[in-house]
Automatic annotation (TrEMBL):
Keywords: DNA-binding, Transcription, Transcription regulation. Residues 15-149 form the HTH marR-type domain. One of its GO terms (molecular function) is DNA-binding transcription factor activity. It comes from Halopolyspora algeriensis. InterPro entries: HTH_MarR-typ, MarR/SlyA-like, Tscrpt_reg_MarR-type_CS, WH-like_DNA-bd_sf, WH_DNA-bd_sf. The lineage of its organism: Bacteria, Bacillati, Actinomycetota, Actinomycetes, Actinomycetes incertae sedis. GO terms for biological process: response to stress. This is DNA-binding MarR family transcriptional regulator.
Length: 151
């Protein structure tokens, strides 16, 4: 076997290891999303929790903006928004740019619950990384950023 073939085998093996670890991370992330969603509100599912985070990041959005950003159809987004409004996690407000339209934003309850869950999640992550060196944390953050921002 040539050096080039061995390098290719080593690279494939490394890529396979990355794939396995990413799969494990995604499973853990899905489980965490369900847990965190339930901490925000017992009737909240992971998809609606994700929508809540999107609205929080944006400040306020129109329903069609949510559909465009998530790739979901408008009826699905409309149902999720209605559920989040019913749970008092989101509220509808007038769109300052279009008097006929409405925007959604976090309600006071939604903001309070989301902030509390984020605080607890941050504490948990600090505990998980307690034995990591600062250099390892920086390298991990750098590699995750590289993965999340290809090109």
């Amino acid at each position: 076997m040539s050096d080039q073939d061995q390098d290719g085998d080593v690279r494939c093996s490394a890529a396979d290891a990355v794939e396995r670890e990413l799969a494990m991370m995604f499973r853990r992330a899905r489980k965490l999303s369900l847990t965190v969603a339930a901490e925000v509100h017992p009737d909240l599912d992971a998809a609606s929790y994700s929508l809540l985070l999107l609205v929080d990041d944006a400040g306020s959005l129109r329903g069609m903006d949510v559909a465009e950003r998530t790739g979901l159809d408008k009826s699905t987004v409309s149902r999720q928004i209605a559920t989040l409004v019913d749970l008092d996690l989101l509220e509808r407000v007038p769109d300052p740019d279009d008097g006929r339209a409405r925007r959604i934003q976090l309600s006071e309850t939604g903001r309070s619950r989301l902030n509390e869950v984020r605080r607890r999640r941050s504490e948990s992550l600090h505990d998980e990384f307690a034995n990591w060196s600062t250099a390892d944390l920086r390298e991990f953050a750098r590699l995750l950023a590289k993965l999340n921002n290809p090109g």
